[in-house]
Amino acid sequence: SDPQKVEGINRAAEAQIDAVIEAVRARRTGNMMRHRVPLFASCAYHAIGLPRMQQTSKFAVDADRCIGCGLCAKRCPMAAIEMRDGLPVWTKPECAACLRCLHCCPKFAISHGKRTASHGQYRHPKPGVRM
Ligand code: SF4
Ligand code: SF4
Prior knowledge:
By secondary structure, this protein is of the alpha+beta class. The chain has helices at 3-25, 39-53, 71-75, 100-104, 116-119; strands spanning 59-61, 81-84, 87-90, 110-112.
């Protein structure tokens, strides 16, 4: 993915987070979210899109790239991955769809659906920050 684009997104997010922190400290109440997606689209995503995303059958691993480090399994918050014969296997039918496994892989060996290659892998801009 484009590092400058990622930097811009992170900068905007930091500013929003700072504003929310300030509001919480000042004990202000109200909706802190900026809704960029129409409500009907958000509802449709949660009814149809998200359950699809959560199917672990959509994950695949490139055995030629995978070095068997086990990071994907270790970092999965749902314990949905087991290492078998040096390769990750998704052992639960559904997961949180956080995509941490895909983005923490040092070899970008995990894909989810057909568009992973074009979407790319997220790398935190600050060196040393663990995914
Ligand atoms: S997407 Fe998240 S919850 Fe699902 S298998 Fe990967 S790390 Fe685990
Ligand atoms: S993190 Fe990547 S390289 Fe490591 S075991 Fe998982 S798929 Fe293989």
